[in-house]
Amino acid sequence: CPVEATLDLIGGKWKGVILYHLAAGTLRFGELQRRLGGITPRMLTRQLRELEADGLILRTVHPVVPPHVDYALTADGESLRPVIAALYDWGRARQEKAAA
User: Given CB 3.0 to 4.6 Å as the disulfide criterion, which of 3, 7, 15, 64 pairs with 11?
Assistant: First the structure.
């Protein structure tokens, strides 16, 4: 099922949120962790590795000291932009409805 295949790639607590933040542009590990608040470094590393293995993000290591690593969306990751935006809009509307 295509829905199941998509949810396998972006499902879970963190992957969609990581993709949402990377849609704004390239970010370093520490900046992602600050934006996600509450994710452990170990979990963030795991989620980033899975997204990279699935071809949704690109990890770039810059040869400087200390090492500089940043993450960005690949073309496949960029193609998820409308999906992530729709999830954001739906979630915001749901929060507003619950607050009313």
Answer: 7
Place of tokens 């009313």: 100
Distance CA 50, CA 55 (A): 9
Token code pair at residue 94: 């749901």
Torsion of CA 15, 20, 25, 30, to 10 degrees: -50
Amino acid identity for residue 1 in this structure: C
* Dihedral class, residue 26 (left if φ above 0, else alpha if ψ from -120 to 50, else beta): beta
pLDDT in tens, 56-78: 999 999 988 888 899 999 999 99
| Helices assigned H by DSSP within 25-100 | 29-36, 41-53, 75-78, 81-99
